[in-house]
C-alpha cells in the first residue's frame, strides 16, 4: 500500500469567501468572523501584562510558522479587556477566557456568569483545565475556557498542557480557513480518481503535471509582484519512518 506525503508547500495563502454548507445557512446565528489564526484573549489587563501566567500564555501564542521564507506568527493574538468586549468581537471564531477562581475582577465576574454555581464549584477541584463551548454568539465559533483555582495552579497547568493549547488553537484556525475556502471540486475529484487521495483544493489551482506516483498543482499570483503557490505530492512505498527524515525528503 502506498502512503502519500507532502514534499513541498510554498507560501500557502488562502483566499476567503462564504461557505456553501446548507446546515450553516439554516442557523439563525451570524457566521463567526475574523481571520484564521486570530485569537482573542478576554482577560484582565493585570493578568495578561503583569502576571507570569499571562506572559507565559502570550509567549505560547507567539510561535512562528515553520517552512515560510519570511518569519510569520502562527497566531494573531490580542488581549481584550471586558470594557472593550463589544458585540462585534463577540462574533469572533476563536476566543479564549482565562479564569482564575480565587481572583475577583470585572473580567472574571463576566466569565463566571457563563456557568452555573454548581459548575463553578466543580471547577475548584477539577483538573481538566480546558473547557469548550461552541456556537454561543455565532456559527462555527469556539469559546475556550482555561480554568484553575489559583494562579499557581493555572501556571502549572498551562506549562503541562501548552502543546495541547497550541494544537487546539491551530486546529481551530485550519477549520476556520477551510470553511472560508471556495473549492475546486473538479480538481479534487481528479486527484481522488487518479491518486486515491482525498484533499481540499481551493479554487484557482490548476494541475501542472500528474503521473502515477506524483502530481503538481499551482495557483498563480494575483499580482505581478506576488508569488505563485506550488504544491507537490509524491507517493512511495512505505518502508520505515526514516523515509520522512529531512535528508531523505
In short:
With 249 residues, the protein is of the alpha/beta class.
Keywords, please?
9 helices, alpha/beta, 5-stranded mixed beta sheet, 4-stranded antiparallel beta sheet, 31% helix, single chain, 249 residues, disordered N terminus
Task: Please compute the radius of gyration using only Cα atoms.
Answer: 22 Å
Query: Termini separation (Å)?
Result: 19 Å
Strand segment tally: 9
- The helicity comes to 25-40%
Question: pLDDT average, as an integer?
Answer: 84
So what's the overall shape?
elongated
Number of helices: 9
What pattern of helices and strands is seen along the backbone?
EHEHHEHEHHEEHHHEEE
Described by strand count, sense and barrel closure, the largest sheet is: 5 strands, mixed
Low-confidence region ranges = 1-22
Q: Specify the structural class.
A: alpha/beta
Strand % is 15-25%
Spatial ordering of strands, largest sheet = 3-2-4-6-5
Tell me what the structure shows.
There is one protein chain. This protein is of the alpha/beta class and 249 residues long. It is 31% helix and 24% strand. It contains nine helices and nine strands. The chain has helices at 22-25, 45-50, 52-60, 87-90, 106-112, 117-123, 151-160, 162-180, 185-195, and strands spanning 2-9, 38-42, 76-80, 94-100, 130-134, 142-148, 205-211, 214-219, 229-237. It has a five-stranded mixed sheet, sandwiched between helices. Strands 1-9-8-7 form a four-stranded antiparallel sheet, covered by helices on one side. A hairpin with a 2-residue loop joins strand 7 (205-211) and strand 8 (214-219). Helix 3 (52-60) packs parallel to helix 7 (151-160). Mean pLDDT is 84; it is low at 1-22.
Amino acid at each position: 500500500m502506498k502512503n502519500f506525503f507532502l514534499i513541498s508547500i510554498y507560501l500557502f495563502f488562502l483566499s476567503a469567501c462564504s461557505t456553501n454548507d446548507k446546515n450553516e445557512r439554516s442557523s439563525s446565528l451570524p457566521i463567526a468572523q475574523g481571520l484564521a489564526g486570530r485569537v482573542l484573549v478576554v482577560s484582565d489587563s493585570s493578568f495578561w501584562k503583569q502576571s507570569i501566567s499571562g506572559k507565559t500564555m502570550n509567549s505560547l501564542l507567539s510561535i512562528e510558522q515553520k517552512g515560510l521564507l519570511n518569519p510569520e506568527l502562527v497566531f494573531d493574538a490580542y488581549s481584550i479587556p471586558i470594557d472593550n468586549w463589544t458585540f462585534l468581537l463577540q462574533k469572533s471564531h476563536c476566543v479564549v477566557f482565562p479564569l482564575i477562581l480565587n481572583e475577583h475582577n470585572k473580567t472574571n465576574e463576566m466569565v463566571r456568569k457563563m456557568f452555573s454555581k454548581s459548575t463553578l464549584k466543580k471547577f475548584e477541584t477539577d483538573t481538566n483545565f480546558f473547557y469548550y463551548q461552541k456556537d454561543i454568539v455565532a456559527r462555527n465559533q469556539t469559546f475556550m475556557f482555561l480554568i484553575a483555582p489559583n494562579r499557581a495552579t493555572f501556571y502549572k497547568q498551562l506549562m503541562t498542557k501548552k502543546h495541547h493549547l497550541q494544537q487546539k488553537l491551530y486546529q481551530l484556525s485550519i477549520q476556520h480557513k477551510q470553511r472560508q475556502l471556495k473549492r475546486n471540486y473538479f480538481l479534487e475529484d481528479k486527484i481522488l480518481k487518479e491518486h486515491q487521495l482525498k484533499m481540499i483544493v481551493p479554487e484557482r489551482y490548476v494541475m501542472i503535471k500528474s503521473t502515477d506516483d506524483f502530481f503538481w498543482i499551482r495557483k498563480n499570483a494575483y499580482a505581478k509582484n506576488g508569488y505563485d503557490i506550488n504544491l507537490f505530492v509524491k507517493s512511495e512505498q512505505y518502508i520505515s519512518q526514516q523515509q520522512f527524515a529531512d535528508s531523505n525528503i
